[in-house]
């Protein structure tokens, strides 16, 4: 059943400070809306709750890409089109630009935001595996102050995050200390574009003389949240790139992942494909 839009209230304060003040002062729960590519689907399906929305669209305090000598800082309201067109992001964080390029249609990329993709907290979202592999940090703001946490700690359980009711996701920080790392990303879906992932894997790794010195693996659709595959990483740490290592990693990922059966795929398929993707990455090394 479609929603009755007259039952919804949209507030557009026009500045970040004003938005945070509304969130702090109101006893009601407001749902922030930026591009609206996820929320408008829920609205059309009649399942968008609660019914008070507060607009973040085009707030300059949230839509930016700042480059420093040590990091790239991306505002939460930065669109996927902004990300995939940015020269530093494309050059240094290529798999983030790749993920941005397959997030929905071009129209979706012009509206959809990185922060919205994160806060929506879908286990199948496109950008989280990349951010996990890059070991990103997220900065949260409210009238009470600012706090920054590792992104790997942001998702607590299915659709539940570490974001308080009066907080907003402000920005995502990526360290530029990735010289010498090899990156990999694969998304398996029904189509090449505009498809929710059955499985997605992102990897950032450094090797030396045939030994894996450092590796981070981010995954979608393998647990109830976007997840770092810590046990799988540990099975690869300090290991040679060899067939015996591939056998270890397949066992680790099958024991660590907890996928589900749904209309897009089966749990068994997801686990096996995830192991295949990591094996594919190792073979490229």
Structure characterization notes:
This protein has 285 residues and is α+β, with helices and mostly antiparallel strands. The chain has three domains: 5-55; 65-175, Uridine Diphospho-n-acetylenolpyruvylglucosamine Reductase, domain 3; 182-284, CO dehydrogenase flavoprotein, C-terminal domain (Enolase-like, domain 1). It has eleven helices and 14 strands. The strands form four sheets. A five-stranded antiparallel beta sheet has the order 4-5-10-6-7. Strand 6 and strand 7 (145-150) form a beta hairpin.
Element order, helices and strands? EHEHEEEHHHHHHEEEEEEEEEHHH
Query: How many individual domains?
Result: 3
Any guess at the CATH architecture of the largest domain? 2-Layer Sandwich
Q: How do the strands line up in the largest sheet?
A: 4-5-10-6-7
Number of strands: 14
Would you give the CATH topology of the largest domain?
Uridine Diphospho-n-acetylenolpyruvylglucosamine Reductase, domain 3
Under CATH at level 1, the class of the largest domain stands as Alpha Beta
Distance between the termini: 51 Å
Beta-strand proportion = 25-35%
Average pLDDT figure: 91
Helix content: 25-40%
Shape: globular
């Amino acid at each position: 059943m479609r929603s009755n839009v007259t039952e919804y209230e949209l507030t557009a304060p026009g500045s970040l400070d004003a938005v945070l003040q509304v969130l702090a002062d109101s006893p009601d729960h407001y749902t922030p809306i930026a591009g609206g590519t996820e929320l408008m689907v829920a609205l059309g399906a009649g399942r968008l709750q609660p019914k008070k929305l507060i607009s973040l669209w085009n707030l300059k305090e949230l839509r930016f890409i700042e480059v420093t000598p040590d990091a790239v800082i991306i505002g939460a309201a930065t669109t996927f089109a902004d990300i995939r067109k940015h020269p530093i992001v494309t050059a240094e964080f290529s798999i983030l630009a790749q993920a941005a390029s397959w997030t929905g249609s071009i129209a979706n990329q012009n509206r959809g935001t990185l922060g919205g993709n994160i806060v929506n907290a879908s286990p199948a979202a496109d950008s989280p595996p990349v951010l996990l592999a890059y070991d990103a940090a997220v900065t949260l703001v409210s009238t009470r102050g600012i706090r920054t946490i590792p992104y790997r700690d942001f998702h607590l359980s299915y659709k539940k995050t570490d974001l308080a009711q009066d907080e907003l996701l402000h920005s995502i920080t990526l360290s530029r200390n990735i010289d010498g790392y090899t990156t990999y990303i694969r998304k398996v879906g029904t189509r090449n574009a505009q498809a929710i992932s059955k499985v997605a894997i992102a990897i950032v790794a450094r090797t030396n003389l045939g030994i894996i010195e450092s590796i981070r693996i981010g995954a979608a659709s393998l647990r109830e949240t976007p997840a770092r595959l810590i046990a799988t990483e540990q099975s690869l740490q300090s290991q040679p790139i060899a067939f015996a290592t591939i056998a270890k990693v397949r066992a680790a990922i099958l024991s660590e992942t907890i996928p589900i059966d749904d209309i897009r795929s089966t749990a068994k398929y997801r686990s096996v494909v995830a192991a295949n993707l990591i094996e594919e990455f190792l073979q490229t090394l």
